[in-house]
């Protein structure tokens, strides 16, 4: 029974490991040594300059957009990581810079509108190229194309980085390490180390080393410049699990940033444009070669080959067997029949076109003679009635035009014949008509006079009012007074 109660061990399955960590993504040396841009033909110096330029644009855009320093640092690290998986030839630095700012602002909980980011980066680009500063029209196709490109670039960055966009920054680590070394009160040392940290964001040290090592190298550089002695017995870097060689390597990468000569943005863009053109020409030549192959799907047509084998007939061979002769005869018969049918079809088409032209001409001639034929076929009575109507309509139109001129002339003649007093009376009557509104329209209705009382109820006349009216005539007043006395 004991043997029966034993259960078989659970079956083990092999799954891929998923590692969740808050540490920065450190790239292997194989990926750093040969980048996708170098594979496309871009030299390392031009690539580093373009990377530095993109990071500098992110820093300036962050200052203009009033972003926190953490958001600017995140954007620069994202840009460096992205261009280790994608080429600078295939993806423009300007669009990727805007997308990095847009994404970093959202990651660090300080989002900005995409319109503001495009406007600021466009302004920086104009200043770099020394062009007249003209703001972008937000209703133009240029703005909408740029906006769509930035949104697509943001998605591409997230896909390439696997949505692992959390970045640990060494700014707080510097202050912690200075406290351990009892040098946090030295403001000049802390400020210098902080500045080196911000400048190192333009390099790829955050992709090569962990932030603790970068913080130690920044303190090392700041202590050298400020001439401050750090403890060497025991060495202070052993306290933070770092070697002196690593500190010197990171310090050299940071110092190389200040010693490299800068080229203009226009020259860098021209280099990238030339490489793009070469790639495009190479692609077109490869497509042409692939099309020219006999096994390819698309047929290759050349200027020398004037004839094309449309009948799918086999070429003539040297050995003439009876079967092949019969095939040749059959093919020749088929081709002759096809040619005849084609010729007959063409003749039929030409004849139909010719008939159409003749019909059009006949229709035009019929239209021109239609009026004459109608007039000839009409009965005399109907023809007379039609002509009379035309004559009357013409007479009316001429009479209506003449009446206005006759009216003006008659009025002038009448005025001349009238005496001066009658003229004045006539003028007075015209003036009154104009005031009453008769000059506007014959059907003009004169508005009613408004009652003195504003209320809709009719005003009642008081006896006192009547009495005052009657007092105007003294005789009437006297009679009424005497009657009242009786």
From TrEMBL:
Q: Which InterPro entries match?
A: Cyclin-like_dom, Cyclin-like_sf, Cyclin/Ssn8, Cyclin_C-dom, Cyclin_N
Listed Pfam families: Cyclin_N
Coiled-coil regions listed in the entry: none
Keywords, alphabetical: Cyclin
Provide ranges: composition bias, Basic and acidic residues.
321-330, 337-355, 421-445, 470-486
Ranges annotated as biased composition (Acidic residues): 365-377
The record's listing under SMART domains reads: CYCLIN, Cyclin_C
Could you tell me where the Low complexity compositional bias lies?
A: 302-313
Q: Where is the composition biased (Basic residues)?
A: 446-457
Q: Where is the Cyclin C-terminal domain?
A: 168-281
- Record-annotated Cyclin-like domain positions: 56-159, 172-256
User: Compositional bias (Polar residues) at which positions?
Assistant: 398-412
- Outline the segment boundaries, as ranges, of region: Disordered: 282-486
Q: What family does the Swiss-Prot or TrEMBL record give for this protein?
A: Belongs to the cyclin family.
Record's protein name: Cyclin-L1
Question: Gene encoding this chain?
Answer: LOC100205052
């Amino acid at each position: 029974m004991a043997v029966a109660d034993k259960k078989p061990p659970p079956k083990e399955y092999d799954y891929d490991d998923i590692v969740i960590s808050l540490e920065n993504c450190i790239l292997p040396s194989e990926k750093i040594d040969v980048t996708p841009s170098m594979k496309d033909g871009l030299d390392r110096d031009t690539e580093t300059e373009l990377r530095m330029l993109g990071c500098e644009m992110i820093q300036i855009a962050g200052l203009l957009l009033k972003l926190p320093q953490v958001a600017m640092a995140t954007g620069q690290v994202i840009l460096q990581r992205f261009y280790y998986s994608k080429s600078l030839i295939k993806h423009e630095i300007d669009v990727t810079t805007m997308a990095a700012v847009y994404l970093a602002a959202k990651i660090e909980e300080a989002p900005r509108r995409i319109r503001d980011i495009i406007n600021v980066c466009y302004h920086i680009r104009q200043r770099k190229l020394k062009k007249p500063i003209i703001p972008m029209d937000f209703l133009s196709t240029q703005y909408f194309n740029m906006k769509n490109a930035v949104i697509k670039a943001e998605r591409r960055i997230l896909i390439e980085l696997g949505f692992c966009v959390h970045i640990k920054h060494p700014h707080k680590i510097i202050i912690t390490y200075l406290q351990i070394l009892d040098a946090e009160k030295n403001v000049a040392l802390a400020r210098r180390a902080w500045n080196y940290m911000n400048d190192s964001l333009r390099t790829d040290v955050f992709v090569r080393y962990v932030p603790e090592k970068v913080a130690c190298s920044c303190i090392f550089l700041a202590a050298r410049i400020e001439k401050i002695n750090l403890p060497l017995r025991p060495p202070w870097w052993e306290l933070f699990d770092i070697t002196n060689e690593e500190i010197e390597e990171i310090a050299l990468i940071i110092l190389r940033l200040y010693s490299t000569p800068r080229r203009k943005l226009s020259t860098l863009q021209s280099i990238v444009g030339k490489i793009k053109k070469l790639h495009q020409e190479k692609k077109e030549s490869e497509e042409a070669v692939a099309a020219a192959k006999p096994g390819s799907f698309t047929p290759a047509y050349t200027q020398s080959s004037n004839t094309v084998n449309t009948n799918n007939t086999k070429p003539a061979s040297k050995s003439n067997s009876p079967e092949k002769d019969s095939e040749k005869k059959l093919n020749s018969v088929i081709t002759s029949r096809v040619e005849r049918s084609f010729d007959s079809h063409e003749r039929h088409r030409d004849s139909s076109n010719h008939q159409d032209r003749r019909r059009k001409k006949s229709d035009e001639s019929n239209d021109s003679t239609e009026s004459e034929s109608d007039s000839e076929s009409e009965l005399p009575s109907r023809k007379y009635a039609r002509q009379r109507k035309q004559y009357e309509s013409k007479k009316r139109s001429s009479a209506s035009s003449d009446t206005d001129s006759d009216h003006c002339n008659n009025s002038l003649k009448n005025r001349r014949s009238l005496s001066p007093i009658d003229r004045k009376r006539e003028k007075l009557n015209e003036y009154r008509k104009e005031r009453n509104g008769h000059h506007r329209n014959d059907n003009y209705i004169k508005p009613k006079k408004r009652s003195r009382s504003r209320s809709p109820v009719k005003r009642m006349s008081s006896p006192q009012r009547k009495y005052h009216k009657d007092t105007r005539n003294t005789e009437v007043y006297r009679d009424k007074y005497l009657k009242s006395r009786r």
